[in-house]
Each structure stands twice: as C-alpha cells, then as structure tokens.
Amino acid sequence: MTTASDWTWGKKHLTSPVTSVEFVGSDLVLSGNGPFLGIYSATKGVLLNDTCLLKRSRIHGIRVERKDGNLVLIFGQKVIRVVRLQENSSNSRISVEAVTDIVAFTDLIWDAHWLYSEEVPRLIAIATAHNAVWCWDWENNIKQLVAQCEEPCILYAARFFGSCLEHLIIASGTVFNQILLWKVQGKKDDVNRTPVLERLTGHEGVIFSMNFNNSGTILSSVSDDRSIRLWKVTNLSTFESNGCVEPLLVVYGHTARVWDAKLLETCFVSIGEDLVCNVWSYDGNVVKTYKGHTGRNIWSLAVNQSEDLIATGGGDGSIRLWPLSHPDHYNSSTVREACLPSSSSQACNQIDAKKNKKEDYPRFVSLLDQSNLLVMTNEGCLYKYTWSKQNNIAENQDVSPSSPNTDCLDPEDQWMLLLKDTEYSSYSVLALSPCHKIIAFGNFKRKNQAARCGFQSSSVELQAYSGKVHNLLWSQQHFSSASIFLWA
Predict the structure, then answer these.
(1) Which biological processes are named by the entry's GO terms (predicted)?
(2) C-alpha span between 282 and 251 (Å, rounded)
(3) What is the dihedral of CA 173, 175, 177, 179, to 10 degrees?
C-alpha cells in the first residue's frame, strides 16, 4: 500500500490575485501572480513563460527598463530583483534570466525606479514604507540609504519622477491623507533629514496610489475616499526653487475604494474595488466603463506604449485586455433606435412610432451582419431590420454611456417581415448559426424550426421531444452532411 510519505509533491500552477501587470512594448504583458512572473502575448492570448522569482513574496510591482526593454525590475513586500527577458526565435518563447539574487530591505517597498547615468541604467531608487529612499547599485549589489524625509510617517504609496538621482522627486502618500512632495537630493536639516517641499491636502482617506504623466506636469492620486484627484504641477524639474502644485480636477466614478489611476495623453484610466475600469476624459467625464472581472477588486492596471490597449489584473486571478480609443471616438458614437412596424400593417417599410401597451415588442434580437438585425417578436413575427448605410453602426462600435447621440427612426431604415406564426407568439427562443446563414427558433409547444436567413426556401420544422424548448445551441462542429443544431 502506498503511503503519503512515498508521494512526490511538486508545484504545477498557482491561481491567486494578479497584483501587478505591465506591458513590454505593445504586445507582451507581464503579470505578478504571487511570486510568479507570467509573460503573455496580447495578440495571441497565450502564456509564454511562468517563473517563480520572489520565493515567498508576492510581486507588487514590475518596472521595465524602457531604453533596452529586456531588463525588468520586480519587487514585492521587502524584496527586489532584476531579471532579463530573452526571446527564443525558434519557438517564439520568452526565457527569463535572473540577473541578480533576491535582495531584501528592512522595510516594505512602495516604489522602485530606474536611474540613468549617460543613458545607462546604473542605479535603482527604492522608496520604503517610512518615507525613506535607498539607492541600489544592482550590478555590484551595493545598497545605500540616501534620503530620509523629515516626516518619517507610515506611507501607503509612493511614486518617483526623474531619470537621475540629482533631479529625482518623490510623491509620498501618507496615512494622514496627505501627499508629500520632496526632492531626494534636496537640502538637509540639522538631523540630516530632507524637508517637504509641498503638502497636498484634500483627500479624506489614505492615499493608495499616485502617478505622474510622462512630462511630469500632472499628478494623479486615488484614495480610500473613492475619489480621483488630478494636480497641476509646475516646474517639477526645478521644484525646489520655483515649483508649485495646484488642484486641477476631482472626480467620483467608483462605488468603492479606488486602487490606481494612470495618466495618458488624451485620457486617464482608473480601477477599483468595485471591479470597474473607467476611462475618463480630462474634463472629468467617464467616456467608457469596462466590467468583466468577478468576485472583488481589480488590483492592477497597465496601458501599452501606443496607448490603445488596457490590461487589468483582478482578484479572480484573471488578466483582461480592453481596447482604448481617443475620448472623441467615444463621444461621437451613435445609439440607433427603431420602433417595430405595426403588427397589423402589411407594408414592411412603414414604421408606426405611436406604440401602446398592447402592441408587439421584441423577444429576441440577433445581429445578422454589419447592416442587419433579426428580431423575433412577442406575436410570433420574425423581422429583418436593415439600417441605412450612411449611419452604419459598425463605424461607431463603442457607445458612450454619458452623452450618446441618438438617431431614431431613420426614414432610410427598412423592416422586412420574414415569418409570422402564431405558434411562436408569447414564447419563443432564437439561435443564429455560426455561419450566420441559418436561423433556428423554438416554442413552448415542443416545436423547433430552422430556415435560411433569407427565407429563399421553405423552413424545416421538427418536434424533437415532449416539453418546452428552453434554449437552442448550434454546434461549432461541421459534419460531412450538414451542420446540426441542438435543442434542450
């Protein structure tokens, strides 16, 4: 008999919250799932590599070295490491090479940032949880405490800005609901501590995240108070002598705590505890809302270099990709509305806009192609609705939830009655074949019917069993004789 002591145990897979995501270029997506660094292809949707790099620590941050693109800094809790990505052209796989060992610090790490000397990434700046900054010479494994803020309070977030140590600025989000801006190599006081240059107030909860835009002219902050605040920053590179910060915008768009917000060229993106990813215009309007994660929390957020793709990592262990467009694209979208033709009318192209409670209404709607809908109504009428080409909704696929343009009852639109059968009134189900050429529908009288979408030939009716037809599902398989549909 085999006992447990004879078994061999091995780690095969870990499903846990995705606490960090980052893009390399416009296709590779890096993720932190526990101590594992996952590498995915966004275009192919496949996992290219999954490597355990931080042992017992969860990866909370991923920083790609942008000039080379192969060096990646990962950190979480109190440890940090540098790895190198290498592409294998023979099998399209990505290998991960550990450039440094795991290096531990005495405090939690809130941010890590590449620093350059003559365009070469020589040092890494590290912000820790009691408002201190370290520099790590990662090639020689030498670390040094370079600055301690005059307020050594507990931080919930920190963010660096600057490419070299001499001009490095840090924004610290404190437990006292404030954001402290200070220069790492700034003037020191009598006890060798660095003074705060600017103190930003307004949040009514602890600060969870901050981000600068690429030029350092705008700072975003998110908080336990469910707000997102934008701050206008002037002269950040010379902030110690003539810089200033002014409130720019305060928005509320999440129903729970906000975890992060990224500033882009034409919009900004936020995520929260409510499983929502919002896209905002800089005038403070939500132009797009994405939902898809389950459970609770979207923990991580990234946007690719071309700013047309969003990646979110959730508490459900999934990574989701969302398309990103210019806010004007969302605002110019059009919602099409149309009313069913009167059920007593014999003219297919006349629309009766005056509806009452007893008139017919849609039960099932299915998109046939870019210009046509199939509509099954409560009275057993199957219509094909064709909208005019000049207002083709294929050109306006994203619908703005805030201020849509409504185009109702276009006279160029047409209705065509394909079928009317009273046996399909009051209750019916509808399914369009994967090839969009055949439609199947069923009713509560155990009957199923199939017909070509154009109804050029007669339909076929089947009574498969005794019982109400609850659903219809087309098989994705293709057989030598014909495609089939299933009923249940």
Answers:
(1) tRNA methylation
(2) 10
(3) -20
